[in-house]
Write a structure and sequence with these properties.
8-stranded mixed β-sheet; alpha/beta; two-stranded antiparallel sheet; globular; Rossmann fold
Length: 394
């Protein structure tokens, strides 16, 4: 009798554990605006008040929208259903490493040592989690039981001042494949191989499996500084999408591009050309192969020039946290649109079991020169090492 009662109590929990969805992994890549340089808590020297556009100001000004970011004790609130990893490296550091990880909360932006900055990951993560777990909430109401939440991972890899034409140059564009493209690929596989160590709950939350659910791109400053890089940006971006899909083994991986809109709608030929190229690759008429799987979202309307922003860096969205939030939110909404399209067409789901990525972890560290811009010899060495790492992790 007691055993029967125990089984009755345990069966719902066992059923829920068995039905836990694979971890959804969204890879977020770019240069300094993907890093994020939004000032979270800078105060005005004269008044002592938080400056316009800081995260603290947003919570005070728009509590209905943003008070959810703070816990009752005034600390930043973490989302347990969204994990994040961030390489947080200076531009000369291309070692494969995760320097910050945990539940999503403010502070996953900036360079090493800049712990009070944020990027688009915050708005992206909150928007994505609310959308994906809202469906579970409806399911919960229908089934009269607590369903497993959809666990999300934001795998963020970004360096400041890196171009697509050279640093992230994809293999299909010809010439020397970018060192940072190769490092990106190695970084992705290395991070995925370490999920049980980075997030101990991973095995029970997602039954040791994950789905590569999307690729998010926010970049463009450096290429817009050079006329030749600007001219080939569309070519390189299309190849980046193709090569990322090939190297990750997901032929229709959804891609959401936040256009490089930090200049707003102020006319500037090269900046406008970069944005036009970003919209072009999402044009299904021009690129039928990307139809329903690539989206570019508008961001120019999110510019908040001084005195509406806390900083002076126009190329970093004036360091405005509201802008970074809105950019992340827009990219998430674009990704959600793609995910719904993919669900309606019922493509094969790419789910990977963790055990296939757990061998030889201690012998595959990619060590490159930690200083200076790499020479061609260093780039060649990096390509050989990262390719070797990729093949061993597969």
């Amino acid at each position: 009798m007691k055993l029967s009662l125990l089984l009755v109590l345990l069966l719902p929990q066992l059923s829920l554990a068995q039905s836990a969805a694979p971890l959804k992994v969204f890879i977020m890549v770019g240069q300094s605006n993907m890093q994020g340089h939004g000032y979270m808590n800078v105060k005005d020297d004269a008044t002592g008040q938080f400056r316009n556009g800081t995260l603290e100001w947003m919570i005070q000004k728009f509590p209905k929208e943003y008070s959810k970011l703070k816990a009752n004790d005034g600390s930043w609130k973490a989302r347990p259903d969204v994990w994040i990893t961030y390489n947080r490296q200076n531009i000369e550091n291309v070692r494969v490493e995760v320097n910050q990880f945990g539940n999503l909360l403010p502070g996953f932006g900036g360079d090493p040592g800049q712990t009070d900055q944020m990027g688009p990951e915050l708005g992206f993560g909150w928007t994505m989690a609310e959308a994906l777990n809202k469906d579970n909430g409806v399911q919960q109401q229908q089934q009269q039981q607590q369903p497993p939440k959809q666990q999300i991972l934001l795998l963020k890899v970004a360096w400041g001042g890196r171009s697509l034409a050279v640093d992230f140059r994809p293999p299909s564009s010809g010439g020397v494949t970018g060192l940072y493209y190769e490092t990106l690929m190695a970084q992705i596989f290395r991070t995925l191989s370490r999920l049980p160590q980075l997030f101990p709950k991973y095995a029970t939350t997602s039954i040791g499996s994950y789905e590569l659910a999307g690729f998010v791109w926010h970049q463009g400053w450096n290429d817009g500084c050079d006329v030749n890089m600007t001219a080939e940006y569309e070519f390189n971006l299309a190849n980046l999408i193709r090569d990322v899909r090939t190297d990750l083994g997901v032929s229709k991986l959804p891609v959401s591009i936040g256009v490089s809109g930090f200049n707003g709608y102020t006319p500037e030929p090269r900046r406008d050309a970069i944005i036009a190229a970003q919209f072009a690759v999402a044009n299904a008429t021009k690129y039928p192969e990307f139809a329903g799987t690539v989206v570019a979202v508008e961001t120019r309307g999110f510019v908040r020039p001084p005195p509406l922003s806390p900083g002076t860096q126009s190329y970093h969205w004036w360091n405005n946290c509201e802008t970074y939030w809105l950019v992340g939110k827009a990219m998430a909404e674009g990704m959600i649109q793609l995910l719904r399209l993919s669900q309606s067409s019922s493509p094969p789901v790419n789910v990977y079991k963790q055990k296939s990525l757990l061998r030889n972890n201690n012998n595959n560290q990619l060590n490159l020169l930690p200083f200076g811009y790499p020479s061609e010899e260093t780039i060649s060495l990096a390509r050989r090492k990262s390719r070797s790492l990729l093949h061993s992790l597969r």
